[in-house]
Amino acid sequence: MPNYTKPGQNRQAGKDLREQQDTQQLKTFTRWWNSRLQKRGITVTDLCEEIKPGVISMNLIELLSASVAGKYNKSPSSRFQMLENNGAFLAQLKSKNIRLVNIGPEDLTAGNRTLILGLTWTLIQHYEEVEKDELLDWVKEVTNDYEDVNVTNWHTSFNDGLALCAVLNKLSPQSVDYAATKALDKLARLNKAFDVAEQTFGVFKLLDPNDMVGVKTDEKSVTLYVAKLRQALAVCTETAAERAAKVAAEEVEEARKVEEARLAEVARL
After folding, report:
1. What is the radius of gyration, based on Cα positions, of the chain?
2. What are the residues whose beta carbons fall under 8 Å from the beta carbon of 125, sequence distance 6 or more?
3. CB of 76 closer than 8 Å to CB of 85
4. Staple partner for 89: which of 57, 180, 217, 223, CB 3.0–4.6 Å?
5. What are the distances in angstroms from CA 253 to CA 39, 79, 246, 247, 259?
6. Domains of the chain listed by start with CATH number
């Protein structure tokens, strides 16, 4: 007798999958916030709770934009002050032509998970080199010579660690022995790839291997990680002199922006 699945069961399965992926996305995005905020010694453990006062948000936009965000209450003690901070944060985003949809200070002050995830993805798209189709094509091209790697999508193609190890091996052969990683199980292989990427290339561990094996992973989470990996590997192809010149130029430009913002703030007082 055919084993029919009831419509209600399909809907529940879809809800369960979305919840699993949202949970993974929140973990990944929290780690992304931490990768940026670590410059100021700030560590976030519960993004939806800690975003409410509006303090970490103002720190984040200052770091992302290399500018001074202006006045805000660094120790808000009331909901009104939190709303003020979050309003100032959203105003900063608008002033930088970052498109916001259906989100207000009250949503951040309430810790609305869905809107916080959407806002974080908007920031990632604006400040990181993330274009999923182009990025997936890049991975396919890089891993084309690896018979065991078949990259077709963001949900499952990276879950056994082979694609990530192949990318590392292709662009930096000395960093990982691809043949040796094939003997590892999926979890160990993912851990190997993430360890090498972090220790050798400084790529923050945005993904948790335990959230990837045997499941349909969150597309945005994996896309973000691979984008950061490509950025780091691209730096390795530069000569030492090119890297030094680039870093020096970035530091000068960041200092210029900070001073320009400071002078503008003084002028407004």
Report:
1. 21
2. none
3. yes
4. 57
5. 18, 37, 11, 10, 10
6. 7-127 (1.10.418.10), 132-237 (1.10.418.10)
Separation CA 128–CA 33 (nearest Å)? 13
How far CA 94 is from CA of 43, 65, 123, 145, in Å, comes to 26, 13, 12, 45
The Cβ-side half-sphere exposure at 199, using a 13 Å CA radius, reads 8
Which pLDDT tens digit goes with each residue over 206-253?
A: 999 999 998 999 999 999 999 999 999 888 765 545 666 777 788 888
Query: How far does Cα 230 stand from its chain's mean position?
Result: 13
Closest CA to 167 of 118, 232, 116, 211: 232
Is 215 within 8 Å of 207 (Cβ atoms)?
Answer: no
Mean pLDDT value of segment 185-207: 96
- Structure tokens of 41? 């010694």
The per-residue pLDDT for 237 is 63
